[in-house]
Specification:
It is built from 11 helices and 12 strands. The protein has helices at 15-22, 26-34, 41-54, 59-67, 85-99, 138-146, 171-184, 201-216, 233-245, 258-270, 304-321, and strands spanning 72-77, 102-107, 129-132, 151-154, 166-169, 191-195, 226-228, 252-255, 280-282, 299-301, 327-330, 333-335. It is elongated.
């Protein structure tokens, strides 16, 4: 069985199939799903394993969950490490606490949620999910969508134009602003770009902003000046050191995020050069103690705490009313510090 069965005309798992698979009665399955009776933990676990393995979509469960709320929401992340996640979590927690919800956090760590014997977070123990980009596969998102289980996507558009609320940044306009600054204020023409992960939406739009700025200033795109930063300090450091060893000529670097910008600065220092005197470096996000670096990093500020707040507000609204804004686009702000060559701390 799979979650596309209904759309392809294939019979899907029923509650009877789940009962047989778990070696329990239909009544027991119903009690587990609707949480309206005492069931031994081992038996309950077998039922949820059967539901997961059969990809059963319990429509009755959705009704039961709405009437037996846990006052808990889940926050799914690919891994717990990125500096970006901490201000995001702060915003989520502020609204969760204010709204009377507890918060469960789970790192999927590249292991599909539906492939696990018993999903640690889902429709059986939360009222809704906040999903950070890279946490769920498209199949998993479709699973929750067809279950009519409340989810909100963060930094990721809904697949196949599904009606799932999404919270996004204005990545393209922010990227264009910072590259415009390098060109118009400092006169840089050889601007290298450290792109992020290939399939990440933020990375794509930041790259488009880079291209758009170069095109607007009639600067040809040089593919030799585009390398992998991967939103990762060490990956960016390796790329920039290789560029410099190859004697590639560039006078500025636009890094797709602040972590890769820090990696670029370290690489330039490793090679005996200075920032910004020899090569300017700018980033994106305004995290990672960018104001405290030497030199302080010019970057694009994302309202990350506000993103967490908006995401949680939309999820609460979706849980309580079934209605939410399908797309929330948050504006970015150019933050001028020293790494671009400017001598003051003003922002445009």
């Amino acid at each position: 069985m799979n979650i596309d069965a209904a759309s392809k005309g294939i019979s899907r798992a029923t509650i009877k199939d789940v009962a047989k698979h778990a070696n329990v009665s239909v009544a027991t399955v119903s009690r587990v799903i609707n949480k309206n009776g005492q069931v031994a933990k081992g038996t309950s676990d077998r039922v949820w394993i059967a539901i997961s393995e059969l990809k059963y979509t319990p429509h009755a469960a959705a009704k039961g969950l709405r009437s037996h709320r846990t006052q808990t929401v889940g926050f799914l992340v690919p891994e717990i490490s990125a500096p970006f996640q901490f201000p995001l979590l702060r915003g989520i927690e502020m609204i969760a606490r204010k709204s009377g919800y507890s918060l469960l956090i789970h790192a999927t760590e590249d292991i599909p949620l539906l492939s696990q014997p018993l999903r640690p977070i889902g429709e059986h123990n939360t009222d809704g999910l906040l999903v950070l980009v890279g946490s769920l596969t498209e199949e998993e998102i479709l699973y929750f969508y067809r279950l009519k289980f409340p989810i909100v996507l963060i930094c990721q558009s809904a697949p196949q134009s599904l009606d799932i609320p999404t919270i996004l940044f204005e990545n393209k306009s922010g990227a264009k602003k910072i590259v415009d600054h390098l060109i118009e204020v400092h006169g840089y023409r050889r601007i290298a770009f450290l792109r992020g992960p290939a399939k990440m939406e933020d990375s794509y739009w930041r790259e488009q902003g880079y291209y758009e700025s170069l095109k607007a200033h009639q600067i040809p795109i040089d593919l030799n000046l585009i390398g992998m930063g991967e939103f990762d300090e060490e990956a960016a450091r390796i790329t920039v050191k290789n560029w410099m060893k190859e004697k590639l000529e560039f006078d500025a670097i636009f890094a797709g995020d602040d972590e890769s910008a820090i990696g670029a600065i370290l690489a330039i220092h490793d090679m005996g050069k200075r920032v910004p005197q020899d090569i300017a470096v700018v980033g994106f996000d305004d995290v990672y103690l960018t104001h405290a670096r030497i030199p302080p990093l010019t970057t694009v500020r994302n309202p990350i705490v506000e993103m967490g707040q908006k995401a949680m507000q939309q999820l609460v609204q979706l849980i309580q009313t079934g209605i939410a804004d399908m797309k929330t686009l948050l504006p970015t702000e150019l933050i001028i510090r020293h790494s671009c060559g400017c001598t003051d701390n003003t922002s445009e």
